Amino acid sequence: MKRLTSVGAVAVLAAAGLAIAPAGASVRSAPLPASGFDQPAAVQSEQTLSAKTAAALGLGKGEVLQVKDVVKDADGTEFVRYERTYNGLKVAGGDMIVKRTGDGAISGVTYNRNATGVGVKSTKPTLSQSAALAKGAKAAGFKATGNQGTLVVYVTPAKPVLAYEVVTTGVKADQTPSVLHSFIDANTGALLASDDEVKTGTGKSMYAGTVTIGTSGSAPNFVMKDTSRGGNYTTDLNGGSSGAGTTFTDADNIWGTGAASNRQTAGVDAHYGSQLTWDYYKNVHGRNGIFNNGQGARSRVHYGNAYVNAFWDGTQMTYGDGSGNTHPLTAIDVAGHEMSHGVTEATANLNYSGDAGGLNEATSDIFGTMVEFYANNANDVGDYLIGEKININGNGTPLRYMDKPSKDGRSKDCWTTSTGGLDPHYSSGPLNHWFYLASEGTGAKTINGVNYNSTSCNGTTFAGVGRDVAAKVWYRTLSTKLSSGSTYKDARNGAINSAKELYGAGSAQCKGIQAAFSGISVPAGSAVC
């Protein structure tokens, strides 16, 4: 396997900045993030109004709203994301988005799976909890170290159903931990859906050269903790698979050697990736950390033994050392990809199955790619290839191709009604293809030394609107339009409406976003430019 590692010692400036935000197309003033917006305070304020909001929406008796997130535009417009309970039971898939104008009036509402009501005939199950637990454990397919179940209301595409949410924890055969949520019909015992909290990706190493990372402390006790980015910090698991790990420290604030044999090197790469991702979301989208609350996250390196993967588990990033423990999975796009799973979880919380699973994975590919372009690192230039540095296939080819996803032999270029039945890493193909087409358009071109020649699924040819525009549209779609069970058709409607809000109805940007969705065969919906 080709070995790609950082070359040379890494000079570090404490809490140093990294990159200049790339220039994007001008946008209309109203949809910009509100200056000085305090997201935690906004969440608390909206929660005090939740009962009045439920009444204004005409929600059924027993339905209670819980505020999850608030996005505010400069003109005062707010998008408030709620979750629901029914008669004290959690409603899985009951999430919704309420749009408020600057004067507080409700101007629109988007219900996940059109679930305007989430009541069920009875909250008394006929299936025993022990039977549901057994079904959940069987669905997991690994030896469980924990298995718990609670009654919930699960929103299917057809109707709300009383179900058990069985949470099975354990470790898969490839050393990846799992926190699997299985939804079991509380009357029939049918498996309705499953979703794993641990979202995984694949990679081997990075080659970023000498970089600057944010640290704290003073000689001889510098710490790999970035207080300027919410306290992002990086730890060494030293081959373990649990716990926080040991935070990296250093006497002279010069970290790593660029060789995998030096334990600090993987830490440098992971820390660099976390700060790049923080800076990208902050400087481009106005997002204050993964959770938009100013709090940083932990990155753990040297997980397990020869673990060829990396994952986000809901609170932190974890990287294995790859084949032979010599290829840490710490490439820029891998880091951006995995941490973007955290952003998705904190916003739309897209399921990891059906169309939503593909949208979830593609979102991480999109923003992992954008973090890589944002980094502007001469040793790992931006491209539309996913995992191009890892050489996991042994022949220099990347994991995925955004310009033509089917080149990996499994992903789909075009959306069909069967796309949602694929593994999310492959049902992500159409949205990855959309992002490339929206960014660059059709036809042959060379970008940063890589040749592309993408074609649309409907045979049309068109120019792209630029990756910065496409990414801003998709971020707004993710944060203000999509919910846990969203489909590709929802994504098209949401992206077109987001483009109209950002750039105006009839704008070239909106038309380009629309053309790209037609270009991956997602049929027209209610939203048009």
Ordered list of secondary-structure elements with their pairings:
Layout (H helix, E strand, L loop, with lengths): L9 E2 L27 H10 L1 H8 L5 E10 L5 E9 L2 E12 L5 E6 L17 H12 L3 E12 L4 E12 L5 E9 L5 E6 L2 E3 L14 E3 L2 E3 L1 E2 L5 E5 L9 E2 L1 E2 L3 E2 L7 H23 L12 E6 L6 E3 L3 E5 L11 H15 L7 H22 L9 E2 L13 E2 L22 H4 L1 H12 L2 E5 L2 E5 L12 H14 L7 H16 L4 H11 L11
Parallel strand pairs: 4-6, 14-18, 18-20
Antiparallel strand pairs: 1-17, 2-3, 3-4, 4-5, 6-7, 7-8, 8-9, 10-19, 11-12, 12-16, 13-14, 14-15, 19-20, 21-22, 23-24
InterPro entries: FTP_domain, Peptidase_M4, Peptidase_M4/M1_CTD_sf, Peptidase_M4_C_domain, Peptidase_M4_domain, Zinc_Metalloprotease_M4
Cofactor: Zn(2+)
Subcellular location: Secreted
Q: Can you walk through the features of this model?
A:
The chain is of the alpha+beta class. The protein is 28% helix and 24% strand. The chain is built from eleven helices and 24 strands. Strands 2, 3, 4, 5, 6, 7, 8 and 9 form an eight-stranded mixed β-sheet that branches. Strands 10, 13, 14, 15, 18, 19 and 20 form a seven-stranded mixed β-sheet that branches. The N and C termini lie far apart (48 Å). 53% of the residues are buried.
